[in-house]
Amino acid sequence: MTTINSTIAERVSAMQQGIAGRLPAEVLAAFGGEQAELDAAGLPEGVLAAGAAMPDGELLDAHGDPATLESARHGRPAVVVTYRGAWCPYCNVALRAYQEQLVPVLAERGIELIAISPQKPDGSLSMAEKNELTFTVLSDPGNQIAAALGVLTAPTESARAAQATLGLDLTAANADGSHGVPMPTVVLVDAEGTIRWIDVHPNYTTRTEVEEIATALDLL
């Protein structure tokens, strides 16, 4: 059982121990193989760096209404988090930790927290309600922001087959009907819309820890 002060890595480890005995061996092998490939490939070339303008796009809020990253920032600095979808257990763990541990820190400094995924708006709403999120959760049809950041990827064929055995079809979950997902990424954006810090995790089982984000806030 995790505590409110536990790290994301500790929460993920506890979750993995809990599900290891419940998933078929071939499913675990497929996901393990995918994670090994992601580790071997490492950080993709062309990822935007500090000093670049934060990309934006035609987004949707959790109710399906038009939105943009700029409008969601309300002229304030923001921590922008890309995640794969409400179906991803690692994403649920990370966003719940950010709600519990990061939101209070950001509120004290007038900084927005915005999470973006390629899923349909109802998936965004599900994510927000399930994890009792008080920050903004947006849908990015077509992975506009992930592509512009240089962190767009897709599951391997074996991983997609494993997902299918678990009842997951990304083409049904994603707003554009694709298999595309962002690498979990945290971007610190200043009030002018410039990237001040970016942390990309090619392997979706690891995430940016709250302490790392809190330290990076000093760059503002």
Automatic annotation (TrEMBL):
Signal peptide: none
Protein name: thioredoxin-dependent peroxiredoxin
Transmembrane segments: none
Gene3D superfamilies (UniProt xref): Glutaredoxin
Pfam hit, one: AhpC-TSA
Function: Thiol-specific peroxidase that catalyzes the reduction of hydrogen peroxide and organic hydroperoxides to water and alcohols, respectively. Plays a role in cell protection against oxidative stress by detoxifying peroxides and as sensor of hydrogen peroxide-mediated signaling events.
SUPFAM superfamilies: Thioredoxin-like
Keywords, ordered alphabetically: Antioxidant, Disulfide bond, Oxidoreductase, Peroxidase, Redox-active center
Gene Ontology CC: one annotated term: cytoplasm
Family statement drawn from the similarity comment of this UniProt entry: Belongs to the peroxiredoxin family. BCP/PrxQ subfamily.
EC code(s) of this entry: 1.11.1.24
Keyword Protein biosynthesis: no
Enzyme class, UniProt record, top EC level: oxidoreductase
Catalysed conversion reaction: a hydroperoxide + [thioredoxin]-dithiol = an alcohol + [thioredoxin]-disulfide + H2O
Single Gene Ontology MF annotation: thioredoxin peroxidase activity
Ranges of residues in domain Thioredoxin: 48-220
Annotated GO biological process: cell redox homeostasis; cellular response to oxidative stress
Record carries keyword Nucleotide-binding: no
